[in-house]
Amino acid sequence: MVLVGRIKIAYQDLFVLSRSEIDSLIEGHELDIRDTFSLHRELTGVIIQPWLKKGAGVKMNKILVFPWEKKPKTEVNAQSIEKAKKLGEIVRQKRIKPRDNGKS
Q: Averaged over 67-76, what is the pLDDT?
């Protein structure tokens, strides 16, 4: 029912749409929401400008970070560090030999 109310599609027309069309409608709706949030962030930046120090460069994406803008954290553990060290040693020792593809 949220889809019908927010996207302004008639209830009867909802049953005619295919799954991919509904997915596209939902994706478009999510993009509209993101645009609205981004617009509000820009407006907030304009409003707080008079209270900032001169020359203080405030980036709009630093004022408020939205969940879809956060980068996923990469997990570093002891095994990945050891693997990277071993690969570095192999490269330093130049133990990697080019493959012989039969051309001599």
A: 76
Any alpha helices (H) in the chain, and if so which ranges? 2-7, 11-14, 19-48, 60-63, 78-93
Going 32 to 33 to 34 to 35, the CA torsion angle's sign is: positive
Token pair belonging to 80: 């990945």
DSSP state of 67: G
Contact 66, 37 (CB under 8 A): yes
**Is residue 48 situated within a structural domain?**
yes
C-alpha dist (Å) from residue 98 to 53, 60, 88, 95, 101? 59, 49, 17, 10, 9
pTM, 2 dp? 0.53
Give me the number of domains the chain comprises: 1
Whether 80 is covered by a domain: the verdict is no
Which tens digits make up the pLDDT trace of 2-22?
566 667 777 777 788 888 888
